[in-house]
Amino acid sequence: MSKKKSGVIYILPNIFTASSIFAGVISIINSINGDFVTASWLIMLALIFDGLDGRVARLTNTCSRFGVEFDSLADLVAFGVAPALLLYMYAGHDYGRVGIVIAALFVIFGAIRLARFNVMTSQVEPSVFIGVPIPTAAVFVSILILLFEKYEVLHNFSYILLGLSALVSLLMVSNIRYPSFKKFNFSKRYALRLFVLLLCLALGIFIYPIEGFALIFIVYILYGLVRAGINMNKRSINIKD
Domains in the chain, ordered, with CATH? Predict the structure, then answer.
């Protein structure tokens, strides 16, 4: 392979990372301009770019320390600052300093989550995340805002949006384990069932995109909480025995 081709392949993952930052910046601009729907969808677009950069780097064998650091900085912009500003402009400003604190904590805890992930990557099994990943938290907030925008009846309950955003911020720095799906293995015996399930899920999202994505992320968030609760209950029973 020529040096020219090698250089192009090397920068390809970073192009996706830069695209994630760009989507985050455009989301911020739309939030300032009051176009909350577009701002929310742009954060989801950033999630797609974020997912592609790592996979492209692994496929092309161009993983690097620079790429890791660049990706973390991109995540802080696209999934930290952008959703926090979106949250504040949409609902937080109605609650004064409380809204400011919740938006600020989302960015601060997101930064802590990214720093901890970078430090602990080599120590944690690849099948789980410790705490909610910051892209998941960002899309969770974005999806909630899309739901609030679609259903006017929810407009009077913006405090619920702030409360859930504060909760997911805390979950980012928690020790609750969440599946990463990076090494998802399943037997051929269940392949057809999984295919049917994914097909039905895709069709449901096609018909009800906002509700479908909201359901997926809500179930994901609840899964970690329920699993942690079950494990705590088992440990308490074992201690008593």
Answer: 3-181 (1.20.120.1760)
Write out pLDDT tens, residues 166-192.
999 999 999 888 887 665 555 666 677
Residue among 209, 199, 75 nearest 136 (CA): 75
Cα–Cα distance list, 123 to 118, 151, 162 (Å):
10, 44, 33
- Could you report the per-residue pLDDT of 211-233, keeping only the tens digit for each? 888 888 998 999 888 888 887 77
Indicate the pLDDT class of residue 100, thresholds 50, 70 and 90: very high
The model carries a pTM of 0.86
CA distance linking residue 158 with residue 92, whole number of Å? 8
State whether residue 33 is helix, strand or coil: coil
Helix/strand/coil for 105:
helix
Q: What letter does residue 181 receive in the DSSP assignment?
A: -
Angle between the N-to-C axes of helices 97-120 and 158-172, in degrees from 0 to 180, rounded to the nearest 10 = 30
Q: Which residues fall within 8 angstroms of residue 52, CB to CB, at 6 or more apart?
A: 16
Specify the length of the chain in residues: 241
| Residue corresponding to tokens 């619920």 | 160
- CA dihedral in degrees (61, 18, 81, 45; nearest 10)? -90
Do residues 160 and 109 make contact, with C-beta atoms less than 8 angstroms apart? Answer: no
CB-CB contact of 130 with 177 (8 Å): yes
